[in-house]
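ingest -> validate -> predict -> emit
validate: passed (alphabet ok, no gaps, 229 aa)
predict: started
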Amino acid sequence: MTLDADWAERWVRRTAEAVEAAKDELTELDRQIGDGDHGENLHRGFQAVVARLDAAAVEVSGLDTSDRPVGDVLKIVATTLMSTVGGASGPLYGTAFLRASKVSGRPQLDPSSVVALLEAALEGVASRGKAQVGEKTMVDAWQPAVDAAERAAQDGGDEIAVLRAAAEAADKAAHDTIPLVATKGRASYLGERSAGHEDPGARSTALLLGAAMAAALAGPDGGADGAAA
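emit:
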């Protein structure tokens, strides 16, 4: 399956669906160690992103968009999240997508381009949040995802293999934040009491990367592509 701008749109729409389904879970995770608004904020943000993509589709209706850069879609996501999502998640995810858009200025991504996209997103999150691995933040999911993607690409994996490696690593890494003691962000106020709870940002990162893989396995009509799967 080609990782083009249409894939990027499917990715974002599937992320919106995943966030909506997990909104209560994310809110509860954040209630345990944060402000309790992560699920609602992300849900509102990605609903706004979908609305913006719908409007953009109308604007280009009838035009040839086959050479549209992937980064154009990611930039829409970035600016919309930054303008509609409160708390920390809007600026963090907005910066991630903005950095990713800057390295995705081509109509189609190959394995190395996927790795570059993920690396740029990680750099955006780490820079904006001034966070590093081990502090119980979404970086604890992003870094293992990037590492796994790099290994998959180095082993000769295609785009799907790279995305699958990233998604699976992020899912495991999110769970692995449970025993960590938070030293960054709101959760750090709890000190040792933050241990025993999964980080909500790490979990939403896993949802987002899982949606990227699911979108890659789906055809333009949204159905599964047996050849890719």
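The two ends are 9 Å apart (CA to CA).
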